Amino acid sequence: MPGSIIAGVGMYVPENIYTNNDLTKLMDTSDEWIQERTGIKERRFAHRTNETTATMGIEAAKMAIERAGITAQDIDFIIFATLSPDYYFPGCAVLVQRAMKMKEVGALDVRNQCSGFVYALSVGDQFIRSGMYKNILVIGSEKHSFVLDFNTRSRHISVIFGDGAGAVVLQPSKDDGSGMLSTHLHSDGNDAEMLAMYNPGSHANYWHKDLADFDDAELGEMFESHAMIDKYQNLPVMDGQAVFKKAVLKFPEVIMEALNKNGYQPSDLGLLIPHQANIRISRYVQQKLRLRDDQVYNNIQKYGNTTAASIPIALCEAWQDGRIKKGDLVCMAAFGSGFTWASALMKW
User: Fold this and answer.
1) What is the pLDDT of residues 22-43, one digit of tens each?
2) Which end of the chain is more exposed for a tag (fewer CB within 10 A), N or C?
3) Domain count, the chain
4) CATH (domain of 147)
5) Which residues span the domain enclosing 217?
6) What's the pLDDT at 59?
7) What Cα–Cα distance (Å) separates residue 284 from each residue in 115, 179, 239, 278, 300?
8) Are 45 and 18 a contacting pair, CB within 8 Å?
9) Same domain, yes or no, for 49 and 146?
10) Does one domain contain both 116 and 136?
11) What sign for the dihedral angle of Cα 91, 97, 98, 103?
């Protein structure tokens, strides 16, 4: 069966812009410090109560559906990638189905963080290839701002992330050589706790290395407790150096896996759209693969790291800017928490 094409792309970012200088009013940091380490100049933060991960995803989905030339009633499957769902459960995909008044279609949520959108694309592509569905809505959306700790103790994390959403509509390819060529998915859970948010969780601190910090009474309140809040144990944690070292190894590797699988070289790429994690990672990958500036799309300077939303937002912007044209070889690649990493190669 033929693979899938991206028939429509869409994105949504909140109106609220927070510059690096805005963050200096909340924590001990500087514009120079943030730009040097991440490449970020500003990011968008959603309205605290009026915007959610699902509502931002819906706005991106509306744009993608319209550009695909179909209606919400034509969607026959939804895949929603996020690490910041509206609810612990149910997932965001059903909220999209309800809000957009779709038919009683299947709805799937993907929790693969930074690589979530590429994983979701791969799942959607397999459903298209099997002939099971014909119009699949794939969304990547994140609202990080509600859980970030805007304090100096967390500045190495809080300055990095932003909010936003991107979406695509997948359809069967039209036998003209366009469409998804292959997808490649990987994981290595040995260092899962190096980039994680432990609490709330059902692990009962099984994975924690600091159980001595809890007394017996506190150990009886494991899903969420005052002790966790008081000790800031309900915040994201990241070993930035370890993540960076793993990312610069696996990023080029999974991109080359896709190219080699289909008989291409890096020089054949029309555009590489990497997950927008850190400009230093993107530049390392570009240098490693000997790609020109016009072959790599980066927008982290405007939006920060929007995790599962970063690739579809960048894809949408690149298409809108005329950076992607019919027949171009486009590669999307991501690396993130888990660790998980993935790539997708397609002819536009």
Assistant:
1) 999 999 999 999 999 999 999 9
2) N
3) 3
4) 3.40.47.10
5) 198-234
6) 98
7) 18, 28, 19, 10, 15
8) yes
9) yes
10) yes
11) negative
Q: Are residues 17 and 165 in the same domain?
A: yes
Angle at 166 between CA 201 and CA 49, to 5 degrees: 55
DSSP state of 277: S
Supply the residues annotated as catalytic: 114, 275, 305
pTM over the 0.90 mark:
yes
Radius of gyration of the chain (CA): 20
Q: DSSP 3-state helix, strand, coil percentages of the chain (rounded to 5)?
A: 40, 20, 40
Amino acid at 85: P
Residue 183: per-residue pLDDT: 98
Peptide bond preceding 200 in cis form (omega within 30 of 0): yes
Residue in the block written with tokens 């779709």? 102
Do residues 44 and 147 share a domain?
A: yes
Residue 235 confidence (pLDDT) = 82
End-to-end CA, the chain: 18
Length of the chain counted residue by residue: 348
Q: Which residue reads 């963050």 in tokens?
A: 23
- Between 53-67 and 310-320, two packed helices, what is the crossing angle to 10 degrees? 30
- Contact by Cβ (8 Å): 168, 315: yes
Q: What pLDDT is attached to residue 175?
A: 78
pLDDT for residue 265: 98
pLDDT in tens, 105-152: 999 999 999 999 999 999 999 999 999 999 999 999 999 999 899 999
Is the same domain home to 149 and 216?
no
Tokens of 250: 């696996």
| Residues of the chain with confidence (pLDDT) below 50 | none
In the chain, count H helices and then E strands. Answer: 12, 13
- Write b or e for each residue in 39-53: b if 16 or more Cβ atoms lie within 10 A of its Cβ, otherwise e: bbbbbbbbeeeebbb
